[in-house]
TrEMBL record:
PROSITE patterns for the chain: FMN_HYDROXY_ACID_DH_1, FMN_HYDROXY_ACID_DH_2
Organism: Hyaloscypha bicolor E
Keywords: Flavoprotein, FMN, Oxidoreductase
Protein name: FMN-dependent alpha-hydroxy acid dehydrogenase
Residues involved in glyoxylate binding: 39, 151, 263, 265, 268
Signal peptide: none
Family: Belongs to the FMN-dependent alpha-hydroxy acid dehydrogenase family.
Record-linked InterPro entries: Aldolase_TIM, Alpha-hydoxy_acid_DH_FMN, FMN-dep_DH, FMN_HAD, FMN_hydac_DH_AS
Annotated positions binding FMN: 92-94, 121, 149, 177, 241, 305-309
Domain FMN hydroxy acid dehydrogenase: 13-328
GO molecular function: FMN binding; oxidoreductase activity
Cofactor(s) required, per the database record: FMN
């Protein structure tokens, strides 16, 4: 995605050339409408969870090792048999045309150019076929997999046509969001706003009843959900997004999920949930494997989402058990790749990152202890 060209077309001027994610956020906030920025940036209730996602990284400190040959740092990784240049991909984000340009088309072009994985939101403002066409027409950096994020509706049959379309278009995995039993719609932000503004239960129930069977299901179960998706799309990987406990991680393995995403929905659902970084180590401990397969760390891939703002954050997530990390678009990917490579070199790591490189600040005292 040629971001500067896109900004010239829209008549907007970028105040700075961002070199960190905080600067990217500052630029974005200055360029898009306040109500759109609030929609993307807000969390639930008092917005405790989004802040906790970021704060959890600050408690962790990197313990660098020295006198190691770091002349060749390798950021490549393999996921589902496909090699990627970096261990992170593009997370699903709703209604991207609200942010400007061609929305999901711009993001898909960036993914294809950089050779990174992309997950398309089911709340996309672009057809899934048009998004896939960006990958097919690209002569960029490799052959990244595109995945389709999905909410199952109260009437599961309403979701079947979308799943079939995604499979036919070439999407290789369904990323089922499982942390939204309090449903929101895939239509427009105003519905979310109405639901959040409801003062009493009756008002909320009225809003939900107006949407009928198209709202998110609150009756998904382990015994029925994955078998249903296998039946509808037998050739696609099934990834569960929104796993926050080791018990559910084990259940995901036992019920045949292909991967999980440790995610609290960016803090937009349960405001008092733990941060994703706090949840990650125990999930990794429950799924850790001694498999001889190169690079395999967990029984199924553990993908991480939430609070990542620097390449050092990516380093920490990988060190504590993540196999892959989800993040933003081209400028963000380039920044994270540069910062991750630099962090690895300074920490004395060339390839495999483990928790031996991470310490935690002592609570109520001074110093850092190994995990």
């Amino acid at each position: 995605m040629d971001e500067k060209k896109d900004q010239r077309k829209s008549g907007l001027q970028v105040p700075i050339d961002p070199i960190t994610l905080s600067e990217v956020a500052s630029v974005a906030k200055s360029l898009i409408k306040k109500e759109v920025w609030d929609y993307y940036d807000c969390g639930a209730d008092s917005q405790t969870a989004p802040h906790e996602n970021e704060a959890a990284f600050k408690v962790l400190k990197i313990l660098p090792r020295v006198l190691r040959d770091v002349s060749s740092v390798r950021t490549k990784t393999t996921l589902f048999g496909r090699e990627y240049p970096v261990p992170f991909g593009l997370a699903p984000s709703a209604m991207q045309k609200l942010a400007g340009g061609e929305g999901e088309m711009d993001v898909a072009r960036a993914a294809a150019k950089l050779g990174v994985n992309l997950t398309l939101s089911s709340q996309s403002t672009t057809s899934l076929e048009d998004v896939m066409s960006c990958k097919e027409s690209s002569s960029g950096g490799g052959d990244p997999a595109f995945w389709m994020q999905l909410y199952l509706t109260k009437d599961p049959e309403k979701s079947v046509p979308l799943i079939k379309r995604a499979e036919a278009a070439g999407y290789e995995a369904l990323v089922l969001t499982v942390d939204t039993p309090s449903p929101q719609t895939d239509r427009k932000p105003t519905f979310n706003r109405r639901l959040m503004d409801a003062r009493i239960l009756h008002d909320a129930e009225t809003i939900l009843s107006e949407a009928g069977g198209s709202t998110h299901s609150n009756s998904l179960t382990w015994d029925t959900t994955i078998p249903l998706m296998r039946k509808v799309a037998p050739g696609m990987k099934i990834i569960l997004k929104g796993i926050m406990t080791h018990e559910d991680a084990v259940l995901a393995v036992n019920h045949g999920a292909d991967a999980i995403v440790v995610s609290n929905h960016g803090g937009r659902q349960l405001d008092e949930a733990s941060s994703t970084m706090e949840a990650l180590p125990i999930i990794h401990a429950a799924l850790a494997t001694k498999s001889p397969e190169p690079g395999r760390r967990n029984k199924i891939p553990v993908i991480f989402d939430g609070g990542v703002r620097t390449g050092a954050d990516v380093f920490k997530a990988l060190a504590l058990g993540a196999d892959f990390v989800l993040e933003g678009v081209e400028t963000v990917i380039n920044i994270l790749e540069r910062e991750l490579s630099r962090t690895m070199a300074l920490a004395g790591v060339t390839k495999i990152i483990s928790k031996e490189y991470i310490g935690v600040k002592n609570v109520g005292g001074f110093g850092v202890s190994k995990l």
